Each structure stands twice: as structure tokens, then as C-alpha cells.
Amino acid sequence: MSSIVPQGVAASDFSNALDEFAGVVGKDRVYVDEQPLSSYRDAYSPLADGEFLPSAAVAPEGVEQIKKILKIANAYKIPIWTIGTGRNFAYGGPAPRKSGYVMLDLRRMNRIIEVNEKYGYALVEPGVSYMQLYRHLRAIGSKLWIDPAAPAWGGVMGNALEHGAGYTPYGDHFTMQCGMEVVLADGEVIRTGQGALAGSKHWQVTKHAAGPQFDGMFTQSNFGVVTKMGIWLMPEPPGYKPFMITYEREEDLEAIFEITRPLKVNQIIPNAAVAVDLLWEVSAKTTRRHYFDGKGPLPQSIRKQIASDHKLGMWNYYGALYGPPPIIENNWKIVEDALMSIPGAKLYLDRENDPAWDYRVRLMRGEPNMTEFSIMNWIGGGGHVNFSPLLAPNGSEALAQYNLIKSRCHDHGFDYIGEFLVGWRDMHHILMIMYDRADEAMRKSAYDL
After folding, report:
1. pTM of this prediction?
2. Contact assessment for residue 154 and residue 85, using Cβ atoms and an 8 Å cutoff
């Protein structure tokens, strides 16, 4: 049994709470031993072993059990940390933010309750992964697309609640949620939007009802346990045109986003376009040690050699057009003229035997996959931490932020590995800090960075 007890809770009270949890879900669904609890650790944490460990975990199968669990937790003042699929790796994974919390593990609640082909939505529980929903849609012959985050095992609900993003025109995941069922801390069950109106048939069709809209209270928060969520799904378009453009210079980033901004705001490029740096792009097909065995960031001469060998740029831009072919071709003329105006730009509409290209093309058409984890081989050892500041789609701001973060990475001995994901009027700057988990010095440097 774990030796950890929630802070401020007497050992006897904690023991009584565990017994009562077992009375709700069954003894085999209350986890207190070290081995099962190890699955709730952050496997990629740069912190020393022993940080942020739960005291126990409880795995309910439905709303009624959650209500009873929360009542017990309130009675004994037990802190609760909730997870869905628990796969938000590089951002903390399933681990609680403080040691001693009891995990409320919702992975057993993995029903796809409804798929509505006519109105284009699904109603899911917290344990539903992108791959599960994708396979279900294919199995029933649906013509609806999902918008997955990069790893297929991520949770549909959890990613939306964490303000996650994807790569199709439905890439802003919280914007695409519609209607939640939530168990509050006192056990009350509420439904947001039209779900609050008795007899309403439009819970997943519109976010609005009488009174204020408060779905956002339950994102990145601990104000309630979300047990159901509607998610809008994209109808399969009649045409799809992915493309990639490489840019030779790091400073081209400024021009890339000055050109991209009006294309995105006006929805000429409807999907979440992305500018991927050289090392992120090449890491799907080679390793750092193949080019350089030294310490610290790669010399510029090596970076240029990598770009030449793999026909890549310092920035590699992906986007896609969707819709009837005549509309695609009309918009393509605008996109091509604009993005190819930067000197040295090279256009690709296909790249044979390129896993990075295949990975992006699949994501932009709503096909979840696990290719992103192959980039961990760039360093080896599997350790990585992500940092994702937001900014406006402004070229000079993007370049300044890139130079600042790259400088900090170099100061701590790391290469810059990142991408800029462009939403409608915002950008996610996703930095990947890679390190070897077996190298304590590198692990410490990653944490310091």
C-alpha cells in the first residue's frame, strides 16, 4: 500500500475513506498499491522520481458512483484529481499537481453515446480516445471526420477541456464542444446550454440557452467532473488538397505569418496551418547522433546539411484546402501566389516515402496516428516537456518569440525544436524540450529550462 496520505488528512480518516470508496466501486477498483499507482505518474517528467504521486485512485463507471465518491471525499476532506484518458504527456500526463491527491480515474467511462450524422456531432464520455471515436465512425459507415490531436490515444473530452488544438478546420477543440454534463463538488448534476432545458432536443446543436453560458468554468479547472460532452464533427468534404512549402531562412518566419494572417482570418486557408522547424520535421526519419555526437545545440553547418539531405527548410509549412474542387482550385491560386512569394520557397504537393509528410497529411484529414512519438528517437531516452505560449499571428512577434526561446534553449544546451500552429486569430507556439531520461544532467537542464 502507498505510504502517501493526503496533506491535512488523518491516516485513520484516509483509511475509512478508502473503505467507503470500495463500497461504491468495488475493492478491485480502488488502487492503493505502488504498482497500479505507478501508471498515474508523469512518465516524462524532468523532476526527480517521487514527485507528484497520488495516494490512491478510484475508477467509477458512471455518474451515480461519481456522486457518491465526491460525497465521501467531502466528508473526509480528501483532495481529488480527475483524469479522462490520462494521456496528456509532456504537459504532466496523468499525475496530480500535488502529491497525495486521490485520482478520480474516468477511463472506464468510455461510451460513445450518440453519433448524429445529420447534424454532425458525437456525444462522448471522458474515457473516449480519438482512435476509438475514429474507428467507431468508420465501423458505422459515417462520413464525419474527427479532429485529432497529434497522438491517437489522447482523449476527445480531455483535450477540449485543456484548450487543445488539432489540424483540420475544426482545430479549436473547445470551440467545437457543445453541451456538457457535469457533476459538481456537492454531487449536483448539471447540463450546460440546451441540456439545462427539460425536453430540449438541441443539446449538441447550439451552445446557447436562457441565461449565461458557463461551459468555460470547467476547462483547465477543478470546479466539477465533466461526464459527458458533445463534440462537433466535420462532414467529409468533396475535395482535399494538402500542401507543404519549405523556407530556407529562420528569419522567413516573419514573412510567413504576415502572409498567413489574412489567409486565415478570411478562411482562405480553413485549417490549422503549421510552420514546423527543421529538427522537428527531420526527427521523424533520422537521429541527432547520425549527424553530430557533440554536446550542446547543433552547429549551423550541420543544420544546413540536414536540410540539404532531406529537402527541408529551416521552416516547413503545412496547410490544406477543403471543399468542392472548383472552389479549392480558385482558392489555391490565391494561396500559392501569396506563400510562394518568399524568395527560396519550394512547393510540394506530395513527398514519396516521407513519414513526416504522411503524418501531417493524415492529421489534416482527421486520421489519428502515433507517428509523433517517433520523433522522440531524435535524442533517445524518450524524455520531453512541452511549453506552448500563445501569441497573435503577427510576423515580428513570432520571430521575436522564436529568437528568445531558441536563445534560452541554447543557453541550457538544447536545440530548439518547435512549431507554430495557426488558429483563426491566434497561434500556439509549441516547444518540444527533448532529453534522455537516463541522463540526470540533461534531465536537470530540461527542468531548469
Report:
1. 0.94
2. yes
